[in-house]
Amino acid sequence: MAKYIMQRILAMLVTLFIIVTIGFMVIRLMPGGIFDDAVDMSYEQRAALEAKYNLDKPIPVQYAMFLKGLVLEGDWGTSLKMYVNVPVWDVIKTKIPVTLYINFFSLLISLPLGIVLGIVAAIRKNTMTDYLISFLVVIFISVPSFIFATLLQYFVAFKAGLFPIIYDATAVGWDKFYCLTLPILALSLGPIARVTRYLRAELAETINSDFMLLAKTKGLTERQATINHGIRNSMLPLMNIIVPMFTSIMGGSLVIETIFSIPGMGGIMVKSINAPDYTVTLATLIFYSVVSLVTVLIVDLSYGIVDPRVRMGGKK
Amino acid sequence: MAKFYSSDVPEYKVDKEQFEFVQLKGDIADAAFQDKPIGFFKDAMLRFCRSKVSIVAFVGIVVILFMAIFMPMTSRWNYNDQDLNRINLPPKMPVLENVGILDGTRWLTNRRVDSLEDTTRYPEGSILKVINYRKVQGVDMCDIKVDYYKYCGLEDGTYFWMGTDYLGRDLWVRMWRGARVSLAIAFISVVCNVFIGIVYGSIAGYYGGKIDMIMMRITEIIGAFPEIVVVTLFILFFGTGMLSIILCLVVQNWIGTARMIRSQFYRYKGSEYVLAARTLGVKDMALIFRHILPNSIGPIITRAMIAIPGAIFTESFLAYIGLGIRAPESSIGVLLSQGQKIMQQYPNQVFFPAVVISLLMIAFNMLSNGLRDAFDPTQRGA
């Protein structure tokens, strides 16, 4: 087990290294320099600036220096344009918690809600309840989260005035959650629908299986059989969709942060791309890579815990 | 001791005359099928047509496609006709204006009462209603409802069905033009995905062994990159444009198709008919494309249909984070992200594209559900 985990972490680090390398090269090879639009800058000034940020050296040398700084001193470089001379880490360290906050909350909300709705739909299959849930599921799966965000922002926040239109950065505790309710809601609708649809299909199939018949034959009530045998067995495949779900929440949160002006990683990434501010862009890309790689890792490792039949690291 | 059959044993001897034909005179019921045989596609078609939802979705998609292709051609305006005299107009439609919705009016608040007579500011007949008279610091103020088209000095009979944007461009034309661009991006990228996926998956699945191992490791490596990062890097590197958006939609999405095709090959390549064909000397290429691949035509079509809304989503997503299609060109995502910024003043600019993209996504999802049920009834409702 420990060996398997080590292997997976090693593989993850290799992937991360490749991503960082490619990311660095792509961002540095991008057409157009950072100081291109500063027309009033003299040649000497520009050369001095480029020398200061090591931009005049060959790209492999820059990359080596970047890696050395990152690994040995945790130094991400300094922001070049958005917050001049502020270390990148100081720029992003305040943004990471907000982004993780809305992403994890929406995952936390959508899993139980989706599971409950899916169970209800499967037990009441082919009734009005099931049809209603399935209808809503199709709509919530299809319509992108940023459309929901826009609609919620307009009707609930602007017209009805129930929630703040944009995020208030000074809020803490309960007020913070109140500010972030609409973004979290907009992010959660799609995942809820996805979990519901998946669980409904799985459970509907499990209910018809032989061991459920056996459970009922030996005298369990419908409820006991469903809860103890049906739901448990249909939960296992749910692990499969958590990873794609979480990455899609991350993607959605990028846009939703800009819509609700939440000062998170999404907003800083968009701004740094448009600035352009290479060091910040690279840092945000690394952040998103790390988060999604870690999610994949956690889900892979938890397969063995959720389903003991999956042997860790054994032969296939 | 057991007795074995032999025609020499007297008790097994049967004369020829003792035989009689079972069915010489009776009607033969199963001599020939009365109906025409139903092929795979016809079967799927029958099942598809039975579901009303799929038909509605199909019709919806056809209508949107039709509008996207022909609407930009029939309009008076080009998608990039700018006119600063008519910026941010409210929507106005010929029939609905009589009912009171989409009639091109707008409330203007905090206007000075004494300026209402000024025909250079408020042309003849542009003010429809005045309410809310009040005095603010000794000046008479009021709110007025104006016919915004007259207010901007446009001639009668000018209709912008969905209003105009901040450069005075007709949103109706821009929206259908945008739908056209978005759909084109989606279709082209999906065709590329399917093509690459088929070729790659077929080779890996058919040859198997070491080739399969190496090819699948490659897909795992590509698949390990987070999608947001890949898409962003791709656009950063190749610049914003239709081609690079299509490319970045292809770069990871073909993997799913390839895996699906590969598993289909594993399922069928050991079956007897493939063995028979191979014994008859059929070449590899013919085996792959003529004998095995057609088995997976159903899943391929279903998958392609599911991928289209995904592609439209990614395109809009890129537009939102400022990496969308380049400026004068329009796409649904560009319209949405532009409209979103001024939503509180001009909700119509975001509302109509939002409706169209939602309808499009719902229709494609419904259609792909219907197609999946039609091609593979065992998966119904999954």
Task: Describe the secondary-structure layout.
The complex is a heterodimer of chains A (316) and B (382).
Chain A: H1 2-29, H2 43-52, H3 59-73, H4 88-93, H5 96-123, H6 128-142, H7 145-159, H8 173-207, H9 210-217, H10 222-235, H11 239-259, H12 265-274, H13 278-306
Chain B: H1 40-50, H2 52-74, H3 96-99, E1 105-112, E2 127-136, E3 139-147, H4 148-151, H5 171-207, H6 209-224, H7 227-238, H8 242-268, H9 272-279, H10 284-292, H11 297-320, H12 332-341, H13 348-375
Antiparallel strand pairs in B: 1-3, 2-3
What would the keywords be for this entry?
heterodimer, A: 316 residues, globular, B: 382 residues, 3-stranded antiparallel sheet, 3 strands
Quick rundown:
With about 325 residues, chain A is an all-alpha fold.
Structure description:
In chain A, helix 1 runs antiparallel to helix 13, helix 8 (173-207) packs across helix 10 (222-235) and helix 9 packs antiparallel against helix 10 (222-235). In chain A, 74% of the residues lie in helices and 0% in strands. The mean pLDDT of chain A is 82. Chain A is mostly helical. Chain A is globular, with a radius of gyration of 24 Å. In chain B, 56% of the residues lie in helices and 7% in strands. Chain B has 13 helices and three strands, in the order H-H-H-E-E-E-H-H-H-H-H-H-H-H-H-H. In chain B, helix 5 (171-207) packs antiparallel against helix 6. Classes of the chains: A mainly alpha (316), B mainly alpha (382). The interface between A and B is large, with 47 and 37 residues.
